[in-house]
Amino acid sequence: MEELLKVNNVSMVFGGLRAVSNFSMEINKGELIGLIGPNGAGKTTAFNMLTGVYEPTDGTITFEGNLVNGKKPYQVTAMGMARTFQNIRLFSELSVIDNVKIAYNMHVQYSLPEAVLRFGRYFNEEEEITNKAMSLLKIFKLDGKAHELAKNLPYGEQRRLEIARAMATQPKLLLLDEPAAGMNPQETHELMEMIRWIRDEFKLSILLIEHDMSLVMNVCERIYVLEYGFCIANGVPEEIKNNKRVIEAYLGEEVS
Amino acid sequence: MNKIRKQDIMSLLGCFVLFAVMQLMMTFDIIGPFWELNIVLIGINIILSVSLNLINGYTGQFSIGHAGFLAVGAYTGAIVTVKLGLPYELALVVGTLCAGALGFLIGLPTLRLNGDYLAIATLGLGEIIRICILNIEYVGGASGLMGIPRETNFAWVFWVGVFVIFFIKNFINSAPGRSCLAIRENEIAAETMGIDTTKYKVMAFTIGAAFAGTAGVLFSHYFYIAHPASFTFMRSFDILTMVVLGGLGSMSGAITGAVLLTGISAFLAEYPEWRMVIYSITLIVLMLYRPQGLFGNKELSLKMFKLGGDNSGRTAEGK
Amino acid sequence: MDMGSFLHQFAQQLINGVSLGSIYALIALGYTMIYGIIKLINFAHGDIYMLGAYFGFVATTMFGFSFLPALIFAMAAAAVAGIVIERVAYRPMRNAPRIAILITAIGVSFFLEYGMILIATPQPRTFPAVFEGTIYNFAGLVINSQQIVILVSALVLMAGLTYIVNHTKAGKAMRAVSFDMDAAQLMGINIDKVISMTFALGSSLAAAAGVLVGIYYNSIDPLMGMMPGMKAFVAAVLGGIGIIPGAMLGGIIMGVVEAMVSGFFSSTFRDAAAFGILILILLYKPAGLLGKNIREKV
């Protein structure tokens, strides 16, 4: 299997607080990996390190052999990693389709003069962006609401839009931070199908933070478990399900 | 032909018609010199508020030192015509470029700051510019630069204004413009979607500053003099009020705000203190009861101002 | 300039600077306290200083008060003004976007300035000489007794404030609200009262500064609050906005720097120096000398 992301003994220290300690992880091409753990375990911090929002205090992160440490988020996205957020961060006052179009900006070729004077590549690329955005929205069943303001969408659709927007950056690795938060079982099931489908259809890898165990166990091929910033277990769902340490972390001690 | 191109051409034709009508009225004294002066002033203020709207309204950066760039344009343009004896057209270009360059240099380090801090920094920088000008004898220091030829007229103001409006309208409907909107909406998300936020913040700031400079050249070449007292924080505050009154993020709003406030100013020209008291009360009441201003971030649904193309159709009707 | 006269000038400007700095510190305290509690840069604070000077003027000329009663009157009147402004203009905006509140504050500032011009005319007024300033000559250095009064008054007031903030229940409530408004509310603290009190305290200190300046410089005018207000704000940021000892430290530094620039370079660039310091701080240590960095949670 071809290696895509390698996290090597990474730590994140904020003043006196060790949010993540000596965390290591590998993701290969095409894999669907889960990152779980109780609240406050450091999962989102790990995401933030992977995407350049934080620079790791120790350790290295490499993506396709290139160093990620110290890169700014937009550079990391250009390398091929895209993410969604635990607390939805849509461009609320903009339309659904604009949210997606913006994610295509990094692939735009036309220059500022061409944009302002509207000649050359402007019209062609704008049409291309609009078409690409619409087809992406269609996949995520949001095309009917393309011109609605993002803030007016119901919660479940907002989450789907976040994923659609991340997909527009054409990532090789998609990081989803609690995509099923606030969804009912029906929606969660659909999401599960969608995640698998995205991986197969777009041939990318996915790293997932989730609390919903049914989603994680059914969808992920391998799982890493964090507790208080440390990785306490990793392996296939079967192993994790029966791992004593993991059970303790979630349910407290003395589970007989 | 492309639908968007058609709209643009129709709008330009509309501008021609408007220009012809107004110019004729002025030539035949149907619009007298008092009104002509105010119309020129309105035009200059429109350019100022529209350029500030690009920075504060579209990109969400709180800049309250715009008068500084106005000053840079006014003075550098005047240096070109008065001190170097070169043509007015060159003055316009030089004023714009100098203000833009300063905007770039200032923007680069300061746009890292957020909200309140950025506001204070821009206020401070606006003041520093004014104080420096006050102390430079070459441009007249505290007495100002006098003897500037009156090159600006209605035609100049109108067509430069149209250019600036079209420039910004087209900018906001393109990829770099959308990046600015994204930054306003959610900077962290924008960064994560591959947008180099610093680059676009600086870009918007530079363009806004440059056009303020253009307005400056127009200004100093209409009023014969460039004087530091015209470029205080109060001027920046005036421009900010126009944008906020019209609605941050709305081009039609910025234009309307400029027209309204220039009008009120003219009306109260005899009573400058009352003008300030009324301005401030207006602003406070506006913030308390309708902080989004007249248009919010929507546009008037006139062909002229519709943000061309299929883009999300953000009109006042909220279509 | 030889070493001897350099040292002499330095010491002289130091004296002037400390005196000036105490004024800035008094004003800066208001900025920092208000920012600490509701995260607002109260642009109108410099104008409270101006109001204080005018209240003092009224007290001495119309009511014939002497120094201390006039000072107390001005401080009390300004406290009331501060409470009223907060109640009318800022409280309804408590949940509004930051830019809206900032604009409101700017509006209040201009309202006070131009309102005062309409009421009191733009002509400067002469503050009566409530006490004579005797000039002391000490090793060739000039010290005005008024400067000493300014310094002592400022120190007394700052000590009083520190006592209130650190050793009273009300002060504890203020600190709690500035840490976490919601948590403080849940602990039964009356937020509105605490905020009003903060405004009252900050305003009274600024008013005291206004009266002291009126006495020392003899002249007051409606726009006198603009520059000192800006500089005091820079002082607050310099020391670390929201941190009370920071405002005191920042104020003294600003005063000394200004005196040095005036003495050694030119007084016309004095004001630019203040803004220059502001820019430097914002670029290199925005949390201020005594401040800590706070990250946004992503």
What does this structure look like?
The complex is a heterotrimer of chains A (256), B (319) and C (298). By secondary structure, chain A is an alpha/beta fold. Chain A is 39% helix and 24% strand. Chain A folds into 2 domains: 1-80 and 171-256, Rossmann fold (3-Layer(aba) Sandwich); 93-168, no CATH class. In chain A, a hairpin with a 2-residue loop joins strand 9 and strand 10. The mean pLDDT of chain A is 90. Chain B has one domain. Mean pLDDT of chain B is 88; it is low at 302-319. With 298 residues, chain C is mainly alpha-helical. In chain C, helix 1 (3-38) crosses helix 9 (226-239), helix 2 (45-61) packs antiparallel against helix 3 and helix 9 packs parallel to helix 11 (270-284). Chain C is 73% helix and 4% strand. Chains in contact: A-B, A-C, B-C.
Q: What key phrases describe this protein's structure?
A:
heterotrimer; A: 256 residues; alpha/beta; Rossmann fold; six-stranded mixed beta sheet; 10 helices; globular; B: 319 residues; mainly alpha; 12 helices; 0% strand; disordered C terminus
